[in-house]
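FAQ

Q: What does a record look like?
A: Structure on top, sequence underneath. For example:
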C-alpha cells in the first residue's frame, strides 16, 4: 500500500471506531434503567413481566429523554466519527481519480498508441516464424516472446485502463479497448495452440489477433481526433 493511501484509510478506521464507540453510549438514567431491568430479571426470573413493573415504578426515561441523554454523552463523538468517515471516503475517491488520470507521480502513465506499436512490431516479427512452423512443434521461443509481450506491454495497459476511461469516457473507451481485449485473447489462443503443437490454429489465431489490434488502433485514432 502506498503512503498516499494511508491517510484516507486511517480516517475511515478512526471514524468507524469513534462512531461505533460513541453510538453505543447511554445516558446515566438510561444506563441505570438498563441495570435495573437486568437486576429485576435476575431476582424475579424471566417471563413474569416483573421487570417491566419494576421499571415503571422507578420511571423509565422516555424516548426523547434517552435521546437527549445519549446526545449529551455520545452525540458529538458520533458526529465526529461520521465526519471522519466522510472525509476519508472523499479523499480516497479523489486519490482513485488522480491515479486513474495519471496525475500521481509514481503511477505509470499508459501510452496506448505506443503499446499498439510494440505489439504490432512483435507480431510482425513472429509471423514468418509461425508461417514456417510444422505441425507438432510447440515453438518454445515464440511462446516465450508472447509471455514477454503480455507482461511488458499488454498487462500495464490493462492495469492502467482507468487512465484511458478518464481520458475519453467509458463509452468511447469501450470502442477501442474491446478490440484490444479481443486481440489479447487471440494472442493467448496462439500460445495455447502452440502448446498443443497445432501450428495451423496458431497461425489463424495470430491473424485474428492482428485484426483485433488493428481495429483497436482505428478506434483509438478516432477517439483522439474527437477529444
Amino acid at each position: 500500500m502506498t503512503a498516499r493511501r494511508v491517510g484516507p484509510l486511517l480516517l475511515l478506521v478512526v471514524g468507524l471506531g469513534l462512531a461505533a464507540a460513541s453510538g453505543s453510549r447511554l445516558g446515566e438514567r438510561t444506563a441505570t434503567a438498563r441495570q435495573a431491568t437486568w437486576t429485576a430479571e435476575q431476582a424475579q426470573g424471566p417471563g413474569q413481566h416483573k421487570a417491566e413493573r419494576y421499571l415503571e415504578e422507578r420511571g423509565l426515561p422516555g424516548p426523547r429523554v434517552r435521546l437527549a441523554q445519549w446526545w449529551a454523552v455520545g452525540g458529538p463523538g458520533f458526529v465526529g466519527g461520521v465526519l471522519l468517515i466522510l472525509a476519508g471516503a472523499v479523499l480516497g475517491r479523489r486519490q482513485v481519480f488522480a491515479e486513474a488520470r495519471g496525475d500521481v507521480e509514481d503511477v505509470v502513465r499508459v501510452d496506448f498508441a505506443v503499446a499498439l506499436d510494440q505489439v504490432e512490431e512483435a507480431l510482425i516479427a513472429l509471423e514468418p516464424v509461425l508461417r514456417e512452423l510444422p505441425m507438432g512443434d510447440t515453438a518454445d521461443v515464440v511462446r516465450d516472446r508472447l509471455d514477454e509481450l503480455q507482461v511488458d506491454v499488454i498487462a500495464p495497459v490493462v492495469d492502467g485502463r482507468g487512465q484511458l476511461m478518464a481520458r475519453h469516457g467509458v463509452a468511447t473507451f469501450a470502442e477501442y479497448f474491446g478490440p484490444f481485449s479481443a486481440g489479447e485473447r487471440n494472442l493467448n489462443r496462439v500460445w495455447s495452440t502452440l502448446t498443443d503443437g497445432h501450428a495451423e490454429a496458431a497461425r489463424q489465431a495470430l491473424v485474428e489477433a492482428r485484426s483485433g489490434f488493428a481495429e483497436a488502433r482505428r478506434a483509438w485514432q478516432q477517439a483522439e481526433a474527437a477529444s
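Q: Is there anything notable about this one?
A: Residues 112-226 form one domain.
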